[in-house]
Write a structure and sequence with these properties.
Layout: E1 10-12, E2 18-20, H1 27-35, H2 44-57, H3 62-75, H4 81-84, H5 89-96, H6 105-125, H7 128-133, H8 148-152, H9 158-169, H10 177-186, H11 198-209
Antiparallel strand pairs: 1-2
Length: about 210
């Protein structure tokens, strides 16, 4: 039987663990892979933050956004959508002058708009978590084996397309199907760690124990 490190998409790191290849041996990215990516999340602020940051990522790499995440949090009220919804044109001007974040007017305005839409969504469903988790795919809709080929072949899915379409109908922006699927991967609505990655089985156990919000 081939060593796990020989399986395409799995790398054996200096600590002896086998991981998905995409962290590129960047320590901060590796920590994100190990401690955050794919862990089921039901906290509304974290869910909203991730939607916003995925929007800022459009056209860029996630590593770029990850390294600016603390600056984004400081500049954007910690992604408290109640507070962010109150931002004005003066706040947009302030953010456009902040070199520590992505200074893109459309993306900044989108985050503020989405904060206002998030309040409406929360009021309708009781929580953002209850809304987002209804788009979790069933096991029957998932690949039988999460290989690198399967991973690369899924920039979007029927479920991310449905979520994207519904968010857009509700007035959200920068929530295309690819952006939304990256959100689903990160927030644990799916487990896309590859077979052979040490985190895959850990997260499968977490997902089994996770109480889906209703």
């Amino acid at each position: 039987m081939a060593d796990k490190a020989e399986i395409e998409g799995i790398v054996k790191d200096s600590d002896g663990r086998h991981r998905c290849w995409w962290h590129g041996d960047q320590e901060d990215y590796k920590a994100y892979h190990d401690l955050e990516w794919g862990q089921p999340v039901s906290d509304d602020r974290r869910l909203f933050e991730k939607v916003c940051l995925e929007g800022f990522q459009v056209g860029l790499s996630w590593l770029t956004i990850l390294r600016k995440r603390e600056s984004f949090r400081a500049a954007m009220a910690g992604f408290d959508f109640e507070r962010l919804a109150e931002f004005t044109e003066a706040d947009v001007t302030r953010l456009l002058a902040n070199a520590e974040i992505i200074r893109n007017r459309k993306k900044i305005e989108s985050a503020i708009n989405n904060a206002r839409r998030a309040i409406t969504l929360r009021d309708e469903f009781g929580s953002l978590a209850a809304y987002f988790w209804q788009f979790e795919p069933s096991e029957a809709d998932r690949p039988k084996r999460m290989s690198k080929d399967a991973f690369v072949a899924m920039p979007t899915t029927a479920h991310s397309t449905a979520l994207s379409k519904d968010l857009k109908k509700r007035g959200w922006s920068f929530v295309g199907p690819t952006t939304v699927y990256a959100f689903m991967q990160a927030m644990g609505l799916v487990n896309d760690h590859l077979e052979g990655c040490f985190r895959r089985e850990e997260l499968e156990a977490e997902r089994r124990a996770f109480q889906r919000p209703v």
